[in-house]
């Protein structure tokens, strides 16, 4: 199960870096794509970013393009989400998920293993 960390409270315009670390399937980590999704209270889950198995392809939701960057370190079996220029609309619980097919992308049904989430709160 992936484990997210790095959430917290930040002022508008600030930055945070989220980390998704994997366990259990670490021997096969290199074959997995990983995605970040978020969910604000009362709203549906929203695609944020994804990265394919070798890092050659990245995907971003429209609302975060140009502000967020996803990357991975297969040696550390981790994926990172660098979030810059945060605004209150970015406030949500952020979830990391594994795609065993390796391609990633915005479709929820590609992902079969989800973390517990980490809270990001952006104050105005």
Pick out its properties:
4-stranded antiparallel sheet, 0% helix, globular
Give the helix/strand class.
mainly beta
User: Low-confidence stretches at least 5 residues in length (pLDDT < 50)?
Assistant: none
Overall body shape? globular
Helix content: under 10%
Please write the string of helix (H) and strand (E) elements. Answer: EEEEEEEEEEE
- Beta-sheet strand percentage? over 45%
Number of DSSP helices?
Answer: 0
Count of beta strands: 11
Rg over CA atoms, rounded to whole Å, is 13 Å
What is the makeup of the main sheet?
Answer: 7 strands, mixed
Mean pLDDT: 94
Distance between the termini: 33 Å
Can you walk me through this structure?
- The protein has 124 residues and is an all-beta fold.
- The protein is 0% helix and 46% strand.
- It has no helices and 11 strands.
- The strands form 2 sheets. Strands 2, 4, 5, 6, 9, 10 and 11 form a 7-stranded mixed β-sheet that branches.
- Strand 7 (68-73) and strand 8 (78-83) form a beta hairpin.
- The protein is globular and about 40 Å long.
Summarize the structure in short.
The chain has 124 residues and is mainly beta.
């Amino acid at each position: 199960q992936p484990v997210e960390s790095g959430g917290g409270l930040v002022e508008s315009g600030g930055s945070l870096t989220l980390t998704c670390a994997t366990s259990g399937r670490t021997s096969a980590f290199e074959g997995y794509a990983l995605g970040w999704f978020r969910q604000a209270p009362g709203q549906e889950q929203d695609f944020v970013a994804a990265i394919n198995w070798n890092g050659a392809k990245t995907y971003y939701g429209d609302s975060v393009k140009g502000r967020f960057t996803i990357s991975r370190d297969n040696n550390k079996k981790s994926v990172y989400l660098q979030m810059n220029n945060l605004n209150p609309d970015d406030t949500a619980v952020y979830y990391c998920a594994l795609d065993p097919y390796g391609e990633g992308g915005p479709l929820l049904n590609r992902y079969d293993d989800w973390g517990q989430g980490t809270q990001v709160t952006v104050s105005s």
